[in-house]
Predict the structure.
Amino acid sequence: MKRRGKPGGAREVPEFPSGGEAPSAEAYIPARAVSLNVLRKAVLVCRGCGIWKCGTRAVFGEGNERAGGVMFVGEQPGDVEEREGRPFVGPAGRMLDKAMQEAGIDRSKVYVTNAVKHFKFEPKGERRIHSKPTSRETQACRPWLEREIAMVRPRVVVALGATAAQSLLGAKFRVTREGGKLIEGTQWAKFVLATGHPSAILRKPSSEERREAYAGLVRDLRVVAGVMVGRARKSA
């Protein structure tokens, strides 16, 4: 065993001679993770799966940390997000901003994060092309997401895309069948709703398909906005 210093308090974690990896991010969670800022610093040294070897930094969540709000969970940071160290600031993030605005959700009042904290990609010349995380990689990274949800305590969690939805709702969950529905009784929040990821909309081959998928995203986000408006009326 080796004592590895970490933000928020040291803890003993085993040595991982095979590439320096743990079988899960759990080994890198600080013993005294008392705030999101502590986690935000600790995630930078996470080696809970092999994706850390791809990029330069992990990307943690950010936004409104007040309990009872909305948390958006995507798949993983993209190229722009990984370079800037912030979630949803690239093309998909701009599309999400636009969809939230149309749906009546204030971006400044939500928390955004990803199920996987590192950017997995395949190099193609000077470009870095998105590569889907495996289920093992997603599960290995889930301890970070679990801590985020526990600290933010959102009323609604919105899973963007299949990776996020299956991380939260199980491998058998299908966004194509069950997306857009408010799901109650989960461990994560009062409500969970799954919908498409904005990056999937951008990858649609035709402008008509993109318009249709975008309209579906806005429609689903209006369901979330309705929940928050109803809650605000009850508390007024």
About this structure: The chain has eight helices and nine strands. The domain at 62-235 is CATH 3.40.470.10 (Uracil-DNA Glycosylase, subunit E).
